[in-house]
Amino acid sequence: MVKKVAIITNGGDCPGLNAVIRAIVKTAETHGVECYGYIEGYKGLLENNYIKLESNGSASGLLHRGGTIIGASNSTNLFNYPVEQDGKIEYMDMSYQAVENARSAGFDCIFTLGGDGTQKSARDFSVRGLNVIGVPKTIDNDVAHSEITFGYNTAVSVAAEALDRLHSTAESHHRIMTLEVMGRYAGWIALEAAIAGGADAAIIPEIPYDIDKIVKKINKRKEEGKKFSIIVVSEGAKPKDGDMVIKKTLNDGKGLDNIRLGGIGEKLAHDLEEKTGMVARNTTLGYVQRGGTPTAFDRVLSTKYGTKAMELAIQGTFNVLVTLKNGKLDYVSLEDVVGKNKEIGARSGGTESTNIKRVTMDDDLVKVARNLDICLGD
């Protein structure tokens, strides 16, 4: 019988995290289960730092709040963790200590709210013997086997609103406007935002772009009397026979994605200005996309995920990820989520073994974009 559970929110902050926490806590209380929250993600698991969560106290008033009340970490890999010894930093496997901490605290299940990297660590902890249930969180919408992740709808809504605002400036000044959005190695945000915001082109990581094809689209619009163009570009996009634009390479250790993307919007705007003779300006949304109040859709989705996760724990169904399949709540094994990425500690990154959900050419969004004559750069 599950009597005591803990929640971890890990990775980047995301609209809907607090709503999931609220749903887990309220469902737990309904079934007489105590609920706790680790502070700052997996870091809290290692430091044995947690607080009690109660719907009439610490977990009250969360539904509309962005971020996470228990903090998060997106640079903590407990399977390869930096430890200072004799004045030097050495990387050590601290996962066994983390497992012992959870067991000593008496937690029957750990809920891991996070994206690809977080769920990879969740799977690895399940191999170490912890009972784990994952909840798919990321604005990038790229968690394997997840129809939609919470936070994604809010991010797309923010991007669509930005496009609405850019339209007026672009049209007034006869400019090309590029909007760089997040998404890492998946183009879901860029593609859906382009459709929602009436963009003329959507440049995504899955389709290396031909700059001349975008220029052709812009020139066609000019011939039709439309003297401006709006282009959405995902941060992980790259030109054909070219590479992604890397803003910075981090040194957070093995098993983490040490690449910080950013700058493709500026590059694309510069190149288009040179090739078309039109003034081009870029806007990079950045963290605006993943902060603030979640949409009503994400509030409901987060609540559904949270209640389902707690139900699974009560049933004794562990080491799974809560999913939405064909509009209905379901779950899938964490082993299926990580796919070929089986090595312990190899947490995340855009490698061949990383099992993320990317845009496929037969996806309905791609078909819709092509039917609307939205240029995809190919």
Instruction: Round the Cα radius of gyration to an integer and report it.
Output: 22 Å
- What percent of residues are in strands? 15-25%
Q: What is the structural class?
A: alpha/beta
Shape assignment: globular
Report the mean per-residue pLDDT as an integer. 93
Distance between the termini: 55 Å
Q: Could you give a short account of the major beta sheet?
A: 7 strands, mixed
The beta-strand count equals 15
In the sheet with the most strands, the strands line up as: 3-2-1-6-7-14-15
What series of H and E elements makes up the topology? EHEHEEEHEHEHEHEHEEEHEHEEHH
Low-confidence stretches: none
Helical run tally: 11
Overall tally of domains: 2
- What is the CATH top level name of the largest domain? Alpha Beta
Helix share bin: 25-40%
CATH topology label of the largest domain: Rossmann fold
Looking at the overall shape, the CATH architecture of the largest domain is 3-Layer(aba) Sandwich
